[in-house]
Specification:
The chain has one domain. The chain is 46% helix and 24% strand. It contains 2 helices and 5 strands, in the order H-H-E-E-E-E-E. Helix 1 runs antiparallel to helix 2.
Amino acid sequence: MDRIFTLDEARALLPEIIDDVGLVIAARADLAEIAHDRQALGSSELGGIPEIKGLEARIEEVLSGWTERGVEVKGVAPVLVDFPSVLNGVSVRLCWIEGERELAWYHRTELGFAGRRPL
């Protein structure tokens, strides 16, 4: 059975998610730079295939850790996560996107991001 978060549980976990997002952002930026430099210059000061594989593994490790805790990863650029929940008897996702300071949005499960509303 998938985990269902209370609002308090999701908000308590969010600071850890935000800390982890810093790692994802740094790895994502390094991947973009390596790809660009390899395409434009033939090589990158940040490395090559071994470094790419290491950065991809770092991102996957973070995302897998979230998933194991019941958090749904919806995107990595920008980072977008949902916490399955129930509000007023309705299945919803408590929704957080990179750059937000707190968990302040939700959407009905079937509507996705376009259906976001403030909590």
